[in-house]
Amino acid sequence: MHDFVDRPRPLRDSDAFNLEAVNQWVLENVPTLVGSPEVFQYPGGASNLTYLLAYKNKDVILRRPPPGHKAKSAHDMGREYKVMKALKNQYPYVPEMIAFCEDEKLIGGQFYLMERMKGIIPRKDFPRGMSIDKESAKKLCFGLFDKLIELHKVDIEKAGLSDLGKGKGYVQRQVDGWIDRFERSKTWNVPGFKTITSWLKENRPDDVSTCLIHNDFRFDNAVFDPNDPGNIIGVLDWEMATLGDPLMDLGGALAYWVEEKDDFAFRWLRRQPSNIPGMLTRNEIVDYYCEKMNFDRGLWPFYQIFGLFRLAVIIQQIYYRYYKGQTDNPIFKNFWFFVHLLSFRCHKILKKGPI
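^ that's the sequence the OP posted. Answer follows.
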């Protein structure tokens, strides 16, 4: 299984930084590291960027905002570092934090260093050549959502994170906030979502509880033990973690959960290998989660529709940037189509119930 350990790729020129300045800072703050590192980069990059610094005696991970970022609140490295550092004692799957750099002059933004967790990270597909039978796929699912359940049971007072978010009223703030984001990024060629947004406002439940939520919980943010792929050793990317309603976290996670039986169009949105034989269905995951957390399964349609609407807004915001000429990446040209697709799925749930 060691052959399937997630490895970085060569550094993209557009994401390079002043290695000499960074290395000088690193050696001053982490004197156990030796020499000057080779630098590699992990895939992705729409959000914060992740690099591997391969020193002679140890590999470490560097996280920084994307070049040219404007809104500090969207790429608050200090907040992300604080969350993980505080959470480590209560939730051992968080990487060990090593050092935080406040000086934005070094590379144009704050950054931090953390341990490298060596393991398997399922991205859109499992690593080439890795065979997963039905029983193993089911075990992976339970392992993933057990970690979400464990996160939602973390004692936020003991973790020192009780001031991380606004707490109660999370559902209302999220519904209002995402509707506002959609209105500000709407273009002529996407549906207006009037029926959906009105329904969300009218059927908004009170928060079922307030806990620490991840807000981007997927297979590609989990690290699996290379010697025992059913065992998760790490959970990554805590950029959007906050205090909120746990069912909102599940709704956001399952908006990305593309099943084997889903239609061809929805499969285009797949970003994780949730479609292979043996994987749990969305409804099976909800049943399992609600039983473990003692939540009312009947509330689920709201959270599923909200999760899909939130994903539609995320996609629309990306398309809006393309539409306005703020990016010329051709991959974004037809993103408006997926907004229609997600609108259709929301309406289908309104008529028939969870899918």
